[in-house]
């Protein structure tokens, strides 16, 4: 795990998105729709007339705000795909609704807020219970958000 | 009804309700009725409804209701009174004297006859009440009484008064509905036995009388001069037809079929054929019933609703079977007027829309329902006339189907056309039992085939031009059915019809294809790309599209599993052409070779070429033309749909024709074998051309998922078969494809396509000699290996997104490798895949936060286990078990302990990982079931790990996750129960030893499976599971232990399913087996439950009969054990038992 820091360092400054041909996208994968990083919840193709060429219809949910976006484009075109990263941290403390998080290597950070909604509520209640647990942080387009809670199991 | 009036209802003073009659009752009732009919507020409505409901519960309401009905002018009040009377008479039947009942019945009849202007709903409710009264008395009163009543109805129907006739018919209708209701009639609160006995009595005595009345009335009405237009006559006809339909759909009781009896108790699932007893013969066949119905149809054909019912009657009548037809003469006597009637019915120029489907179905049934060997009994000129008409209809439907499409989503004519085409296929198939059928079919086939073709062509000689242009630019979604699926039945029939006249069909298709190809060539040469040109091209593409679809269906059939053969008709045609010298081998071969070289395409074609080969050659020309257009970068002008059609055609054709197996045919055609057969140069050339086409399609149409899918299917057809594969591996293009599949553009292909491509690449390897394969391997599989190594190195411990794409790509290819497993390449595939599976466990760890990767890893394991495990040697199996255990542990480490939350928006997709895990575990168990693997050297002794270890390891993790919420997803649910059931079947001795929590979880899920509406399959699986566990207990005489204890509860559950809950007859067998095993295991519990059930009956006679039924089911002198004879005898007894007990206990 020692090289993970280097790995991340190598990534910083890299583009937050990369292009991919529309037809190679998948349902449950990610794509930028109207400049928002989205999870693809619906993907279908259509064509104009029986002998027309395929177009791809995409419906996505913004991974941070939950808003819905749609787009249509010819299947040969490229779309931008966000680099999406998920990382587990151990929750150490909560202060002023900021989480204190520690990763596998022992590095800590205090720059992320407890999110709104169900996940946030679960974090708070389990923290109040004194549980020991991990929080999964989703990162894309320079934004980060806690999206899941996991019980720590022995490795 | 003679001499009855309200005064006739004599009630004894003591029966009067103690409270007397509220003098304001009528007023209140009218008020409440008016309120309900005048769109009231919710509150007012509720109050009014409550008042009426209370009124309905009035005790002894007979005098009151009769008076009210006489006094009021409010129809709704009359309706309420009728309802009240109906409910009261059923409730208080036992207290009523027969005289009272009779006077009530007669009062109601008289009432309705005296008021011809009553609204229909009121009239129907009153006659329904009458019908209920009559039926309720069936088993008490003598037959004379009922006979008398029916003969009075008959008199009504024969009277001159139209209103009275309608009342008579309505009452008969109501009687039929009540007696034959199959559970749809009024709720009597009585046992099923009562209903069935009533039905039988009515069926034996009165139904025939009713039928006679109907026949006479029919005769009378059909004899009318001219078309009736007054509403009274039309209403009468409507009633009559409704009654006829009721009779023709009557399900006659058959005493010996117990299953059918049970079916009767459940809802009628489909219209069964009309199967009257033999006594009906004279009336059904001998009295012109069919003729009268057709005559009547003429009177009503302009009234959509009446015409529809009349057609339905005819359609149901044409299904008549059974004892009424003792010989073929009677059959023919019935069939002949039907054909005559059909001819008469269809002699008009056009049919109304509501007739389209009915008429076509009638024609189809005439030839499909009757045994076709009796066709010989039909005078040949009549048969000829019938077929001529059917041919005209087929052609006109075929035209209209294309032209009506724009107007309606689902074309009526398409459905009708399918029926008519099915009729022709049936005729052709009957040529063995009725030899003239062949020739008759051949007389009409050319017309039909040609019309069908023309209806689908948009340009010059076609008629579809206007039809097509309107939907040129319609948006078509990929989920919509394409023509191949939507018209598959039609196309199969048309292809079959074409085969009956192969010479015409083949030459027509070839000619049209040839023309369109030249036109396309011209258009593409001068490619301006203007809108006008695009329109022309679109028409051309659509013509070619249909020509290819029809040609493909003409040349070959599609079937799963069976060896694909060249249709006999075509083989015979080719042979006879060659024998007559019409075709020659040399000319055929050179034609084939020419079509594979575009520069030689313009060479004049020889007319000595075989018909089939020539048609195929044209498609090769088209395909090459397309490929050259692509190279000239004209792809924006091309049609992806046409590309699909071309590869689809090749795939369909290649199955039976390409490198054909001569040994499959009694005789083969020389030109065909020389062009397509083993060892022919043109066949290997064709293979090469096809492989190049595949590569070209992948490159050009990368982003057209449908094209690449059809293309990869062609590649699979080529590589799956060993003979063809031997040719494929000689192609350089294959090597190119195999090496390049890691690079663009091939990495951009859709996921499924990439898997299939990998599969084909591996199939190819299986056909290579070992030294060639070694070279091929280094060039194709080594890169996969290397890339995996790099990936694993880079991603160790972290799931960086740069690796995500690569991981996805590689895992998809790995799934393709797994899918390629076959019995003949096991060791090759395993040695490739095993090290990668080990790597994948690491990937799973690194990417555990990325569901798409987790799913792919599980998929690769599942595919390997499904397709490989049963062929693996013991040593290899062990390796696979070990790595699978590692996988499960890794998965559990990251996903266990959190439970699975199912939120409202969750879809089954979201649980793909669990689904795959369940499938994987199920497949693992199969290894203990089916194992073809060698056991190595025998000296290895007992293996250290057996599949059960892996399965139980997975089970421990997965069972607690399967919550009721998750089981709501149907496939997940089915898969889980399959796993549990297989587990208990294969490891009955280990399951009871499971840890207590796991075991009780499983048992709880069985209870859930039986009591929830997860469907028949799940219930079956649960019952099977219980049976296995019970048998295990009995075998080892367990009287303790968790399994024994848990099963005790299920004795009652299964007993309830057998006797109390709605029964699905298809489950009866498995319920019986399970129940037997359970009571063998828990005899004391069974005895106690029987005692309880019998004791809980309020009625002593019911209790006695119930006890007796149990006595017969499990006689005390027969031991309850698992001996085969005892088991099977029990099952026979159980059928009788269930029938008996249910008819006592089910109440309606």
How is this structure best summarized?
With 155 residues, chain A is mostly beta strands. Chain A is 13% helix and 53% strand. Chain A has two helices and eleven strands.
Describe the model.
The complex is a heterodimer of chains A (155) and B (1148). Chain A has helices at 4-11, 117-128; strands at residues 17-21, 30-33, 36-48, 54-62, 68-74, 78-82, 85-95, 98-102, 108-113, 133-140, 143-151. By secondary structure, chain A is mostly beta strands. In chain A, the strands form three sheets. A five-stranded antiparallel sheet of chain A has the order 9-8-7-10-11, with helices on one face. In chain A, strands 2-3-4-5 form a four-stranded antiparallel sheet, with no helix packed on it. In chain A, strands 1-6 form a two-stranded antiparallel ribbon. The longest helix of chain A has 12 residues, at 117-128. With 1148 residues, chain B is mainly alpha-helical. Chain B contains 49 helices and one strand. Chain B is globular and about 105 Å long. In chain B, 43% of the residues are buried. At the A-B interface, helix 1, strand 3, strand 7 and strand 11 of A face strand 1, helix 24, helix 28 and helix 39 of B. Strand 3 of chain A pairs antiparallel with strand 1 of chain B. Chain B: Residues 606-752 form the Exportin-7/Ran-binding protein 17 TPR repeats domain. Chain B: Its main location: cytoplasm. Chain B: Belongs to the exportin family.
Main β-sheet of chain A: number of strands, strand sense, barrel status?
5 strands, antiparallel
Low-confidence stretches of chain A: 1-13
First-to-last CA distance of chain A: 14 Å
- Secondary structure tally: strands of chain B: 1
- For the termini of chain B, the CA-CA separation is 31 Å
> In terms of structural class, how would the helical and strand content of chain B be classed?
mainly alpha
Tally the helices of chain A.
Answer: 2
Gyration radius of chain A, in Å: 19 Å
Q: Show the largest interface.
A: A-B, 40 and 46 residues
Mean pLDDT over all positions of chain B: 85
What form of chain A results from the Cα inertia axes? elongated
Oligomeric state, counting identical vs distinct chains: heterodimer
Query: How big a fraction of the residues of chain B is strand?
Result: under 5%
Main location (chain B): cytoplasm
Subcellular location (chain B): Cytoplasm; Nucleus
InterPro entries (chain B): ARM-like, ARM-type_fold, TPR_XPO7/RBP17, XPO4/7-like
Protein name (chain B): Exportin-4
């Amino acid at each position: 795990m020692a090289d993970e820091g280097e790995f991340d360092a190598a990534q910083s400054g890299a583009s937050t998105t990369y292009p991919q041909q529309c037809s190679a996208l998948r349902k449950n994968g990610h794509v930028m729709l109207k400049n928002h990083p989205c999870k693809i919840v619906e993907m279908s193709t259509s064509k104009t007339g029986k002998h027309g060429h395929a177009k791809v219809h995409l419906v996505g949910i913004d991974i941070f705000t939950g808003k819905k976006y749609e787009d249509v484009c010819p299947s040969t075109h490229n779309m931008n795909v966000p680099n999406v990263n998920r990382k587990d941290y151990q929750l150490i403390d909560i202060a002023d609704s900021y989480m204190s998080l520690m990763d596998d290597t022992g590095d800590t950070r205090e720059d992320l807020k407890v999110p709104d909604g169900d996940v946030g509520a679960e974090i708070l209640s389990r923290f109040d219970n004194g549980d020991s647990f991990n929080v999964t942080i989703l990162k894309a387009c320079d934004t980060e958000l806690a999206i899941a809670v996991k019980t720590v199991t022995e490795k | 009804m003679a001499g009855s009036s309200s005064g006739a209802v004599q009630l004894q003073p003591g029966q009067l309700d103690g409270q007397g009659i509220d003098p304001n009752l009528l007023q209140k009732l009218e008020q409440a009725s008016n309120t309900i009919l005048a769109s009231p507020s919710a509150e007012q409505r509720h109050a009014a409804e409550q008042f009426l409901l209370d009124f309905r519960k009035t005790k002894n309401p007979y005098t009151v209701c009769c008076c009210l009905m006489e006094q009021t002018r409010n129809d709704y009040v009359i309706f309420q009174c009728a309802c009240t009377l109906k409910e009261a008479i059923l409730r208080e039947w036992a207290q009523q004297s027969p005289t009272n009942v009779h006077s009530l019945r007669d009062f109601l009849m008289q009432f309705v006859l005296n008021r011809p202007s009553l609204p229909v709903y009121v009239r129907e409710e009153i006659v329904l009440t009458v019908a209920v009264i009559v039926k309720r008395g069936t088993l008490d009163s003598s037959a004379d009484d009922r006979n008398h009543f029916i003969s009075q109805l008959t008199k009504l129907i024969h009277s001159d008064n139209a209103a009275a006739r309608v009342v008579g018919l309505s009452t008969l209708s109501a009687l039929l509905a009540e007696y034959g209701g199959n559970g749809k009639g009024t709720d009597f609160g009585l046992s099923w036995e009562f209903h069935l006995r009533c039905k039988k009595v009515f069926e034996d005595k009165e139904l025939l009388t009713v039928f006679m009345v109907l026949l006479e009335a029919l005769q009378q009405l059909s004899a009318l001069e001219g078309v009736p237009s007054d509403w009274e006559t039309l209403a009468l006809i409507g009633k009559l037809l409704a009654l006829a339909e009721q009779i023709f759909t009557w399900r006659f009781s058959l005493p010996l079929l117990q299953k059918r009896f049970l079916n009767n108790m459940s809802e009628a699932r489909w219209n069964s054929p009309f199967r009257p007893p033999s006594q009906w013969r004279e009336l059904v066949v001998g009295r012109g019933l069919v003729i009268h119905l057709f005559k009547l149809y003429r009177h009503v054909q302009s009234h959509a609703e009446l015409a529809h019912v009349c057609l339905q009657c005819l359609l149901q009548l044409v299904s008549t079977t059974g004892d009424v037809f003792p010989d073929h003469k009677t059959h023919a006597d019935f069939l002949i007027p039907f054909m005559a009637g059909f001819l008469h019915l269809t002699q008009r120029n056009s049919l109304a829309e509501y007739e389209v489907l009915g008429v076509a179905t009638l024609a189809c049934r005439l030839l499909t329902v009757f045994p076709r060997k009796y066709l010989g009994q039909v005078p040949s000129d009549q048969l000829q006339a019938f077929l001529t008409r059917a041919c005209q209809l087929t052609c006109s439907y075929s035209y209209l189907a294309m032209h009506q499409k724009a107007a309606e989503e689902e074309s009526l004519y398409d459905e009708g056309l399918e029926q008519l085409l099915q009729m022709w296929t049936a005729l052709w198939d009957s040529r063995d039992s009725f030899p003239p059928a062949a020739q008759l079919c051949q007389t009409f086939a050319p017309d039909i085939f040609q019309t069908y073709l023309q209806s689908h062509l948009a340009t010059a000689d076609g008629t579809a031009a206007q039809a097509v242009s309107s939907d040129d630019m319609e948006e078509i979604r990929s989920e919509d059915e394409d023509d191949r699926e939507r018209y598959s039945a039609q196309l199969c029939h048309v292809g079959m019809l074409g085969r009956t006249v192969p010479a015409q069909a083949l030459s027509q298709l070839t000619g049209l294809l040839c023309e369109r190809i030249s036109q396309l060539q011209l258009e593409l040469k001068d490619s301006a790309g203007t809108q006008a040109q695009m329109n022309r091209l679109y028409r051309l593409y659509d013509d070619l599209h249909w020509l290819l679809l029809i040609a493909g269906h003409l040349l070959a059939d599609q079937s799963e599993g069976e060896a694909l053969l060249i249709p006999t008709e075509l083989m015979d045609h080719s042979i006879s052409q060659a024998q007559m010298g019409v075709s020659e081998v040399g000319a055929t071969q050179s034609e084939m070779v020419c079509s594979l070289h575009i520069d030689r395409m313009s060479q004049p074609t020889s007319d000595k070429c075989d018909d089939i080969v020539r048609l195929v050659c044209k498609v090769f020309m088209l395909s090459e033309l397309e490929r050259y257009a692509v190279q000239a970068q004209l792809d924006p002008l091309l049609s992806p749909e046409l590309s699909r059609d071309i590869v689809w055609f090749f795939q369909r054709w290649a199955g039976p024709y390409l490198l054909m197996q001569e040994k499959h045919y009694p005789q083969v055609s020389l030109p065909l074998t020389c062009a397509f057969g083993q060892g022919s140069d043109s066949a290997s050339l064709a293979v090469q051309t096809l492989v190049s086409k595949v590569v070209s399609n992948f490159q050009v149409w990368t982003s057209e998922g449908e094209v690449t899918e059809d293309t990869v299917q062609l590649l699979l057809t080529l590589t799956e078969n060993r003979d063809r594969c031997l040719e494929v591996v000689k192609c350089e293009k294959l090597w190119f494809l195999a090496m390049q599949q890691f690079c663009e553009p091939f990495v951009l292909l859709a996921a499924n396509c990439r898997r299939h491509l990998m599969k084909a690449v591996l199939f190819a390897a299986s056909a290579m000699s070992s030294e060639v394969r070694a070279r091929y391997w280094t060039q194709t599989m080594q890169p996969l290996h290397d890339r995996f190594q790099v990936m694993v190195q880079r991603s160790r411990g972290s799931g960086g997104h740069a690796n995500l794409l690569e991981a996805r790509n590689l895992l998809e290819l790995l799934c393709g490798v797994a899918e390629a497993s076959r019995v003949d390449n096991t060791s090759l595939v395993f040695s490739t895949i095993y090290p990668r599976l080990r790597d994948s466990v690491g990937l799973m760890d690194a990417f555990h936060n990325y569901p798409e990767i987790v799913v792919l890893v599980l998929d690769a394991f599942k595919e390997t286990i499904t397709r490989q495990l049963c062929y693996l040697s013991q040593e290899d199996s062990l390796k696979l078990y070990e790595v699978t255990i590692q996988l499960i542990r890794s998965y559990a480490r990251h996903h266990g302990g959190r439970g699975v939350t199912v939120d409202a928006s969750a879809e089954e997709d979201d649980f793909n990982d669990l689904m795959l895990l369940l499938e994987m575990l199920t497949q693992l168990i199969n290894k203990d079931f089916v194992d073809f693997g060698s056991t190595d050297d025998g000296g290895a002794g007992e293996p250290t790990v057996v599949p059960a270890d892996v399965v139980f390891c997975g089970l421990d993790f997965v069972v607690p996750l399967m919550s009721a919420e998750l089981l709501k997803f149907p496939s997940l649910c089915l898969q889980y129960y399959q796993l549990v059931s297989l587990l208990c079947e294969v490891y009955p001795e280990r399951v009871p030893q499971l840890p207590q929590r796991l075991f009780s979880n499983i048992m709880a899920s069985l209870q859930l499976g039986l009591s929830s509406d997860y469907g028949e399959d799940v219930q079956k699986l649960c019952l099977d599971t219980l049976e296995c566990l019970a048998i295990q207990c009995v075998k080892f005489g367990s009287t303790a232990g968790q399994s024994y204890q848990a099963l005790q509860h299920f004795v009652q559950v299964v007993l309830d399913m057998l006797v109390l809950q709605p029964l699905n007859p298809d489950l009866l067998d498995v319920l019986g087996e399970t129940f037997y095993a359970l009571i063998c295991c828990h005899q004391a519990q069974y005895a106690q439950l029987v005692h309880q059930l019998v004791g809980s009956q309020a009625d002593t006679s019911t209790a006695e009969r119930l006890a007796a039924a149990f006595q017969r089911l499990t006689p005390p002198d027969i031991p309850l054990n698992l001996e085969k004879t005892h088991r099977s005898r029990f099952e026979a007894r159980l059928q009788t038992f269930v029938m008996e007990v249910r008819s006592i206990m089910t109440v309606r």
